[in-house]
Structures are given as structure tokens and as C-alpha cells.
Amino acid sequence: MFGPDFDIDKVLEDAQRRVTKMTAIREQTAHLTGHAESTEGRIKVTSSATDPVAELRIDPRAMRMPAEELSSAIRSTITAARHDLDRQVEELAAFEYGDAGNPLDALKDKENMKATLGEVQGMFEKAGRDTQTMIDQLRRNLGITGQEPPR
Fold first, then answer.
1. What is the rounded CA–CA span in Å between residue 46 and residue 15?
2. H-type helices in the chain, by residue range?
């Protein structure tokens, strides 16, 4: 992955583009709402990014349902509203990223994500070691010894 053709500037530019897109998606997501209603239409739920139950409407006729049935209908309607919101967020991300690789897809494959994060961590650790080696080399070449770096 990090061979001789590896271009850190290209990686950083790509990362900046992704951050910009994610910021745009987050801002747009704040205005999205998921909606659902029970099969009888007596329970309606609106879900937002900040509130899973932003709005809950229960028709008075639903109050005649047995408590357990009413509770189950409310829970399943809330879940359906969250799924509707999630679907909209996924569609928005797919639109924003197109074929460039939707980062939300990466969240679905945790093992691949762990491996990628491990590679990135290794890359930064190596960059840190390489930087320290260069600093040490410069100090030796300049005859600087035993001096603490300025803070």
C-alpha cells in the first residue's frame, strides 16, 4: 500500500476532500427527518439526527389497544423512522461520494476498517521514526549534541 510511488501529498489532498464532503453531509443530515407510521396509521413518528423521537403522534383510537401491543407498535414505528432516516443519510453520502468510495460503506466492514486503521497507524509511526532519524542526522552533521529542542 505504501510503496515507492506513495504520494503523501495526494493522500493528504484526498483526506481533505473527504473531510470537506463529510462536513457537508453532516450539515445536510442535520436537516433530514425520518418518518414512519404504524400499519393502521394510528402511530406516527418523526426521527432526526439529534432526536430519535423528535415527534410522536398517537391517535386516541390507538389507546384502546392492549398495552403490550401499543408498546410494540410504538417501538417498531420508532425503529422504522430511524431506518428511514438512515436510508436518507446513506443516499446522501452515496450521492456526495459517487464512485469515489463512500466512507459509510467502510463502517459496515469492521475487520477491514481495523486493518486499514492499523496500516495508517503504522504509517504515522514510521513517519515519526523517519523524522526523528533525520533530525538526529542533522544534529550530528551540524555538531549539535546534548541540546534539548526548543519548545
1. 34
2. 8-29, 67-97, 103-106, 110-142
Own/partner pairs, 72-76, CB within 8 angstroms, 24+ separation: 73/38, 73/42, 73/43, 74/43, 74/45, 76/38
From the list 39, 77, 29, the residue with the least C-alpha distance to 57 is 77
What average pLDDT values come out for the chain (151 residues) when binned by 10 residues?
69 82 86 95 95 96 94 96 94 79 66 76 85 87 72 57
> Cα separation of 120 and 127, whole Å?
10
Residue showing cell 408498546: 71
Contact 33, 85 (CB under 8 A): yes
Q: Is 45 left (phi over 0), alpha (psi -120 to 50) or beta?
A: beta
Smallest CA-to-CA distance from 70 within 55, 58, 83 is with 58
| Parallel/antiparallel/unpaired status of strands 55-58 and 33-37 | unpaired
| Whole-structure pTM value | 0.60
